[in-house]
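Onboarding guide, step 5: your first structure request.
Type a short instruction followed by the sequence, for example:

Predict the 3D structure of this protein.
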Amino acid sequence: MTKNLVIIPTYKEKENIEAIIKAVFALPRAFHILIIDDNSPDGTADIVRDLQNEWPEQLHMVERAGKLGLGTAYITGFKWAIEKGYDYIFEMDADFSHNPADLISLHDACVNENADMAIGSRYKSGVNVVNWPMGRVLMSYFASVYVRAVTGMRIMDTTAGFKCYRRKVLETIKLDKIRLKGYAFQIEMKFTSWKYGFKIIEVPIVFTDRKHGASKMSGGIFNEAVWGVLKMKFFSFFKKYEV
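The system replies with structure tokens like these:
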């Protein structure tokens, strides 16, 4: 069985979903894909179902009742991946902000450099973001500065959502105990993995803002990151991180 699973959460991604699936399957390395669709009203899931006729063994989908949050979508996917026995589990957006070709580099970091988590990093080698307004770039960059100051992690891109995990990381983390459910979920997963002592490597990537569809960012994301990170750090003093 193919050991690599790419989890792609979707909500109203009909303009991107077919192209992103075909781009992943065109790579010179074998990946399976799991779509977690939150009842997209635009027919995203219908497009995936049609494509499953072409790739019945490689393309999978979990349909949820509604928009339940990015973190819960990934946790659903992580549990599915563990149950099915995948060795390397990837997070990736549907909108081509993450270049599918970079899946190879993330995989290599885990397989060849023994990383337990490989992060597709926008800030490892400067600021590699295309088509974002300067205000959003600064907010994202200084969010990582803030997270590093609070947590003590030395990860440059703490909010990155393009990652590869070894299965043992997801088996070790108590997924149901992850508190942050929005985009700050990405911070908590890195922080928890770091606290457990897993090896984390950042792989430089170029992040390109979506061309089609609408961004899922909202004002609540900033508040969750600011206050959620403080709470996360506080509660970490009362937890045991033993593998």
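Each response can be followed by summary notes, for example: The mean pLDDT is 91.
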